[in-house]
Specification:
The protein is built from 4 helices and 8 strands, in the order E-H-E-E-H-E-E-H-E-H-E-E. It is of the alpha+beta class. The protein has 2 domains: 59 residues, NusG, N-terminal domain (Alpha-Beta Plaits, 2-Layer Sandwich); 86 residues, VC0802-like (2-Layer Sandwich). The strands form 2 sheets. A 4-stranded antiparallel β-sheet has the order 2-3-1-4. The protein has a 4-stranded mixed β-sheet with strand order 5-8-7-6, with helices on one face. A hairpin with a 2-residue loop joins strand 7 and strand 8. Helix 3 runs parallel beside helix 4.
């Protein structure tokens, strides 16, 4: 199965990371502000995590959408099939940043995203309460110019 991955990096190093990924044979490589995107499967994710020298880490990109309101943020996050990645009883802390967006309060965005994921998982796992005692799945978001990436 093909996935889209994001490699966060320091500003100004995006070109180096993109060139390194292309040199190592990765597909659909594109550099953006502070990150480089590429496509691949699970094995290529592991290979990139091991071989990259300039990027911070390899993240799985689940969705990208416009979020000008908390309602739009909630509905778009809830639409992601979280049950494919987070099991019943597993923890899912949320962190991220907002830059030049209408939704500029990071703690509020974290709460909305956490609530949307919880609502989705509660409906799928048919429960009223989610115990976050198991494995930890870090959810990261970025809001840049009203464009949200999960």
């Amino acid at each position: 199965m093909m996935f889209r991955f994001s490699v966060p990096c320091l500003m100004g190093v995006e070109g180096l990371v993109a060139d390194e990924l292309k040199f190592k044979g990765f597909r659909e490589v594109s550099a953006e502000n502070g990150r480089v995107l590429f496509s691949g499967d699970e094995n290529e994710c592991a290979r990139a995590n091991i071989q990259l020298r300039c990027g911070e880490r390899v993240l799985l990109r689940l969705a990208g959408f416009e979020a000008r309101s908390f309602d739009a943020l909630f509905e778009n996050v809830k639409a992601i099939p979280w049950e494919d990645y987070i099991g019943s009883g597993e923890a899912f802390p949320v962190k991220g940043f907002s830059l030049r967006s209408q939704l500029h309060s990071e703690p509020d965005c974290q709460r909305i995203i956490k609530k949307a994921v919880a609502e989705r998982l509660k409906s799928v796992y048919h429960t009223d309460w989610l115990k976050e005692e198991g494995a930890k799945h870090q959810i990261q978001f970025s809001l840049l110019k009203d464009q949200c990436e999960i």
